[in-house]
Design a protein that fits this description.
Elements (H helix, E strand, L loop, with lengths): L5 E5 L19 H17 L3 E5 L15 E3 L4 E3 L11 H8 L6 E3 L11 E4 L2 E6 L5 H13 L3 E6 L11 E5 L2 E4 L13 E4 L11 E3 L2 E5 L3 H8 L3 E5 L2 H4 L10 E2 L1
Parallel strand pairs: 1-2, 4-5, 7-8, 10-11, 13-14
Antiparallel strand pairs: 1-15, 3-4, 6-7, 9-10, 12-13
Length: 255
């Protein structure tokens, strides 16, 4: 896998308690979220990344989930158009930040919508999950942009009850995918070695490879053991962000 050197993150805002969630009545604890976010940053640093931390934005409760706002590659950044209308203003700060790193910045336009959480990169192919947040128009726009820069893209359907493609899929490298059982039969994934997350531990399918280590959410011992047999891992508490359906990959842009 390509060597990563940079990560962009954003501090949690106290308004995070009003973030979008599929779990009625469940709110994250702001102070615990700040602590868990700080530990996440330390893990990224220990994997060799330099961190650019953007200030919290109280106007956007979900803005800590920066991955949804941009797609990054070696020679290109694409500013997305998030599927949740309340999040579309988040992209302004992300574009401004990425201008310090990229000469080539493209954008998605209406009627396309696309969240970065629906993008799974495997080598030079970007798999695009079609979800409630990412529509066909957004996928086709991204596919065309990527083709102009030498990358391929493959749109694919994901289950209706899955927020994002990466809610159920991670690339661990070495042609190994960590998948929830719901994605194990996806035709496009049949040529890869699959590690299937055990029943009851589906959330851990969103684990994150950073250079030579794998970040794994705490509380999923079977998945942790399965990955630890192959890779050096770092276990992180992230339950406050899971209350907003967010995972390890959601909290950073890595390039």
């Amino acid at each position: 896998m390509r060597k990563l050197t940079q990560a962009v993150v954003k501090k949690p805002a106290s308004s995070i308690v009003r973030g979008i969630s599929s779990q009625p009545g469940v709110q994250p604890d702001y102070h615990r979220a700040v602590k868990q976010h700080r530990e996440y940053l330390q893990a990224l640093k220990s994997c060799g990344l330099q961190i650019t931390e953007l200030k919290a934005d109280e106007d956007f409760p979900d803005s800590v989930f920066v991955e949804d706002t941009a797609i990054t590659a070696e020679n290109l950044a694409v500013i997305t158009r998030p599927g949740a209308e309340s999040r579309r203003g988040e992209v302004t700060a992300i574009r401004s930040c990425l201008e310090d790193f990229y000469d080539n910045i493209e954008s998605l336009n209406p009627p396309g919508t696309l969240d970065g959480g629906d993008i799974l990169r495997i080598e030079n192919t970007f798999y695009i999950g079609l979800s409630e947040r990412t529509n066909s128009a957004g996928a086709e726009q991204l596919k065309k942009i990527l083709a102009d820069y030498g990358y391929s893209a493959v749109p694919l359907e994901i289950p209706e009850d899955m927020l994002h493609l990466k809610s159920g899929a991670s690339c661990l490298g070495d042609k190994i995918l960590l998948l929830s059982e719901k994605l194990a039969e996806v035709e496009e994934f049949q040529s890869f070695k699959q590690l299937i997350v055990p029943a009851g531990e589906e959330y851990a399918a969103n684990s994150l490879r950073i250079n030579d280590r794998i970040l794994v959410p705490s509380g999923y011992p079977k998945t942790r053991k399965m990955i630890a047999e192959l890779y050096q891992i770092i276990t992180l508490e992230i339950d406050e962000f899971s209350k907003l359906d967010g995972g390890l990959s959601c909290l950073s842009l890595r390039f």
